[in-house]
From TrEMBL:
Residues 111-258 form the XdhC Rossmann domain. It holds the Pfam family XdhC_C. PROSITE patterns: D_2_HYDROXYACID_DH_1. This is Xanthine dehydrogenase accessory protein XdhC. InterPro entries: D-isomer_DH_CS1 (IPR029752), MoCofactor_Util/Proc (IPR052698), Xanthine_DH_XdhC (IPR014308), XdhC_CoxI (IPR003777), XdhC_Rossmann_dom (IPR027051). GO terms for molecular function: oxidoreductase activity, acting on the CH-OH group of donors, NAD or NADP as acceptor. Gene3D superfamilies: NAD(P)-binding Rossmann-like Domain. It comes from Billgrantia kenyensis. Residues 17-77 form the XdhC- CoxI domain. It comes from the Bacteria. Transmembrane segments: none annotated.
Length: 283
């Protein structure tokens, strides 16, 4: 029986990019003297795994530590790390290596969808080309369609407890609430309002539904400033009055409303290194 083939860096990079998970690509860009690997050698580091190698030894462990420290601190972007293989790395090679670290923070944004009904299905299908991580929740078991297994950056979660489901969301998540049950919708909105790090909250329904929810949520202790965080009905940006109420149309309208909220601000990992830094490295 053969041992499984180790995953090469390029396969791991493709998979992590596809799934929108945080990771770093380490590339040897220059080397002098005796070194473990040649320029162009690459390794991919995630929060829990390492793919391929830069030659092993203390030097490699230091590269991994540097990458994981940046991942833990959310330091996206490129940086140059210098390693003297007799100094910083304590190896006997005696060479010198410059490593380019490219840290990718993962998906640009996280969208939590609560409800796997008709509108939820259309929303998830429409988000497939977008660079978002999608967390799809439903309190009912076995309601997620088979095609979800083929969609990258999508996680389906059986979530019978609204409080626990909301507590598990990453900070900065955007949430859309559209379950099959009004009581569950209200419990989810209540839990979402208890967190001050949820980026936006959208609730499906009518103005009369929101009036009823608003009264109940106010009685539960949420003030006007908190309640103003909820958009209901969703998909009604800029004073729209509705129109086509098919699930597909509602999903399109809800996503159009979300796009500016999810943001497209320039990220550090998309800027690269300063030209002067590169010139100093290669001249």
């Amino acid at each position: 029986m053969h041992a499984p083939r180790p995953t090469p860096w390029h396969e791991a990079l493709h998979q992590l990019q596809r799934e929108g998970l945080p990771h770093a690509l380490a590339t040897v860009v220059t080397s002098t003297g005796s070194t473990p690997r040649e320029p162009g050698a690459r390794m991919v580091i995630s929060e829990s795994e390492v793919f391929d190698t830069l030659g092993g030894g203390t030097f490699e462990f230091q590269v991994i530590d540097a990458a994981r420290e940046k991942l833990a601190q959310g330091e996206a972007g490129m940086s140059l790390e210098a390693f003297a293989l007799g100094g910083r790395s304590g190896q006997c090679c005696g060479g010198f290596v410059n490593v380019l670290l490219e840290v990718f923070p993962g998906s640009a944004a996280t969208l939590a969808i609560f409800g796997a009904g008709h509108v939820g299905n259309e929303l998830v299908r429409l988000t497939a080309p977008l660079p978002w991580r999608v967390l799809w929740h439903d309190s009912r078991a076995d309601v997620f369609p088979a095609w979800t297994k083929e969609q990258p950056r999508l996680a389906c979660r059986h979530a019978p407890d609204p409080q626990a489901a909301v507590a598990a969301l990453p900070a900065g998540s955007h949430a859309l609430v559209l379950t099959h049950d009004h009581a569950e919708d209200r419990a989810l909105v209540d839990a979402l309002l208890q967190r001050d790090d949820i980026a936006s909250i959208g609730l499906i329904g009518s103005k009369s539904k929101w009036a009823s929810f608003r009264s109940r949520l106010s009685d539960a202790g949420h003030d006007d400033a908190a309640l103003a965080r909820v958009r209901c009905p969703i998909g009604m940006a800029k004073g729209g009055t509705g129109g086509d109420k098919t699930p597909y149309a509602i999903a399109i309208a809800a996503l159009a409303e979300l796009l500016p909220l999810m943001g497209n601000a320039e990220r550090a990992d998309q800027r690269g290194l300063a030209p002067a830094e590169l010139r100093a490295l290669f001249t």
